[in-house]
Design a protein that fits this description.
Elements: H1 3-23, H2 27-38, E1 44-51, E2 63-66, H3 71-91, E3 95-97, E4 111-119, E5 122-131, H4 142-168, H5 176-192, H6 198-210, E6 219-226, E7 231-239, H7 243-246, H8 263-271, H9 273-279, E8 282-284, H10 291-298, E9 302-304, H11 306-310, H12 316-321, E10 326-333, E11 336-344, H13 354-431, H14 437-463, E12 466-473, H15 475-492, E13 495-501, E14 508-510, H16 512-528, E15 534-545, E16 548-557, H17 564-567, H18 585-595, E17 599-604, E18 609-616, E19 628-632
């Protein structure tokens, strides 16, 4: 199974696991459904859950599911798990072991991985998985262990939720609000798993917190954490006013399978004044002392009271974004801080007590898992799309290579008889009187033969290998030679030429003759794009390419530009929009620039098309001596 398929299988199993955990109403049903679901993972042959509840004896001491019907193998699983689960629970960390192989049993797995079911320093039991790596011989891979950790975290969250709900059933009616909050959290959790689009999920997370039927906070904002740069960037803010764009009728029904958030609603939320204010904020996680940075850095929830804000005990950024009581919590997944949430009641000034903070922490736990799953799926889809595009490119290159070989062979066979036809036609035009009708026919044969010879030369030039003579050259001299060759044709076409080269351009390394052909092709194309006259402007200046010194040359014309549908094909061999073109000028130019380690591109401007060439000052992968020749494939 490929890495992409394995990742898709993991995401599918996580989705099923999330649904099963959300629908479980008791510890017994949760343990039974979870053990059976985890057996669906290809490399797992046994699953054991040992629940541990504070003061509440569970229905069963352990739940064991095995893909084998051998009772002796199941007994071995229980014996190994009993010792390893105790060790994992006491040490509070994951344990990976190699089972005994001296037993007279078949299909003994390569390893067992035991994880404590732990949330907020509370142990709810252990989860053990028996199996092996994809090659069926070694222990679980690091990727598999990370996947099991994600599963264990979800199961721990479900255990915690069931424990809390079970305890709330025993409390007095004075704690009814807490029970309502948990019911609401359960409902919100289902909604969070109703979309797998990261962008839609971000809007949904904040909207659920602000909605009257949801978290009922007055304002909520979200900051995305960039682990590489160590910074946080505000990406969205939602208020009581902007939440109506997304949830005009409150929370959707519980049985909603999928929520599709309109693009217009997302745009209106982003463009709201408060959201724009949040999006302007960017801060360094390590050096900033605001509650946002501290929550991301220390991965803990922070509650700030109005008294603290009034007494200047908080960072100025918090005073700027908030107007009183506010709470900040990180969205975590597998030990990483994905985002930081911050909420307040700016309109009413209502305090956020410990109970509301607890609700926010549980909400953030579910939101972090949902967001991580959505981002994982997005990365898998991106990788899948990239693989498809690469495959298409390889197939296209193979086709072009076949066409090139065939074209070169045919062109070579046609060239000799065509030269003979052209030669005889020229002799006929010299021997015939210009007033004779036959002279006109012979002249047409000569002209068409010359055109075909030029076409065959282009085909052979594109298909054969060339030698690059790499030397030091001055770009101005190359362009001056090209202008001298094209000057008369430009004047006849009523096209003016402006040359704007920066002074003291550095000398470059490369084959000046090959590059002269590139500029000749581009200026000729620009001339043909302006049949009624116009202007060509050549601009050259120093630049950078892949961090190294380079020179950029831009060739602007005042033609009609390149149609967008044709833009992606102009560098493909044999693609042309001209009646007499071969479609090889630009592909040859592209190949020459590519072998000079440069880049060539084209864009449409307000006045026409602009071809841009960037050439490095020094070639990195080719020798650069005055007489050095290298083969150009």
């Amino acid at each position: 199974m490929s890495a992409t398929n394995r990742r898709l299988a993991q995401l599918t199993l996580l989705s099923k696991l999330g649904q099963a955990l959300n629908s479980a109403t008791s510890l017994h049903s949760l343990c039974q459904s979870t053990t059976q679901l985890l057996l669906e993972y290809e490399d797992v042959c046994g699953v054991i859950i040992r629940p541990r509840l504070y003061g509440n004896p569970p229905p069963n001491a352990c739940y064991c599911a095995s893909s084998s019907s051998d009772p002796a193998l199941k007994l071995l699983f229980l014996q190994i798990d009993c010792q390893l689960a105790t060790e994992a629970l006491q040490q509070g960390k994951n344990c990976l072991r190699q089972p005994l192989s001296g037993q007279r049993l078949k299909n003994i797995p390569a390893s067992v991985y035991s994880l404590p079911l732990r949330v907020h320093d509370r142990n709810f039991g252990t989860l053990s998985l028996f199996g092996s790596s994809p090659n069926r011989k070694n222990t679980f891979t690091r990727e598999q262990q990370q996947f099991f950790q994600t599963c264990a975290y979800q199961i721990s969250q479900a255990f915690e939720q069931l424990v809390t709900m079970a305890r709330l059933r025993q409390v007095s009616t004075s704690d009814f609000r807490r029970l309502q909050g948990l019911s609401l959290l359960y409902r919100i959790t289902q909604l969070l798993h109703s979309t797998l689009s990261p962008n839609e999920l971000l809007h949904l997370i904040l909207s659920l917190l602000v909605s009257h039927d949801g978290g009922s906070f007055h304002r909520a904002m979200l900051f995305m954490v960039n682990q590489r740069s160590g910074t946080m960037q505000g990406i969205l803010g939602v208020t009581r006013e902007s939440v109506s764009y997304l949830l005009p009728e409150g929370l959707p029904p519980v049985h909603t399978q999928e929520i599709k958030i309109p693009e217009d609603a997302q745009r209106r939320q982003r463009e709201a004044p408060f959201s724009q204010e949040v999006m302007q904020q960017r801060l360094d996680i390590e050096t900033n002392e605001s509650c946002l940075a501290i929550a991301a850095r220390e991965q803990k929830a922070i509650l700030i009271t109005k008294e603290q804000v009034d007494s200047d005990l908080v960072d100025p950024l918090c005073k700027y974004l908030h107007k009183g009581h506010h709470a900040t919590v990180p969205l975590l997944s597998r030990g990483r801080t994905l985002c930081v949430l911050s909420v307040d009641n700016a309109d009413s000034g209502e305090a956020i007590d410990a109970e509301r903070l607890r609700f926010l922490e549980m909400f953030a736990g579910q939101a972090g898992i949902a967001l991580d799953n959505a981002q994982l799926l997005q990365r898998v889809e991106t990788a899948h799309q990239s693989l498809r595009e690469t495959q298409e490119q390889l197939l296209q290159r193979e086709k072009l290579a076949t066409i090139g070989e065939m074209s070169a062979s045919i062109a070579h066979e046609l060239k000799n008889p065509l030269v003979s036809v052209g030669g005889f036609a020229r002799r006929l035009t010299k021997s015939l009187d210009k007033t004779d009708t036959s002279y006109k026919y012979a002249e047409i044969i000569q002209q068409e033969t010359e055109r075909l010879e030029k076409m065959l030369d282009n085909i052979l030039s594109f298909s054969k290998q060339h030698l690059l003579c790499i030397e030091q050259y001055q770009l101005e001299e190359v362009i001056d030679k090209v202008i001298a060759l094209e000057e008369e044709k430009l004047q006849n076409a009523e096209i003016s030429l402006q040359l704007q080269l920066e002074e003291n351009l550095p000398k470059l390394q490369g084959d000046s003759e090959q590059l002269q052909q590139v500029f000749l092709n581009l200026i000729s194309n620009a001339r043909q794009a302006m049949p009624k006259g116009g202007e060509i402007k050549i601009i050259g200046h120093q630049s950078r390419l892949r961090g190294e010194p380079a020179v950029r040359v831009e060739i602007h014309d005042s033609g009609s530009g390149i149609p967008p549908k044709q833009m992606r094909n102009i560098f493909n061999p044999f693609f042309t929009t001209k009646e007499e073109g071969t479609g090889l000028g630009l592909p040859i130019s592209h190949r020459i620039i590519e072998h000079h380690e440069g880049e060539i591109g084209v864009i449409n401007t307000a006045s026409g098309a602009c071809f841009s060439i960037i050439l490095p000052v020094r070639l990195q992968h080719r020798s650069a001596d005055p007489i050095g020749r290298q083969e150009l494939h």
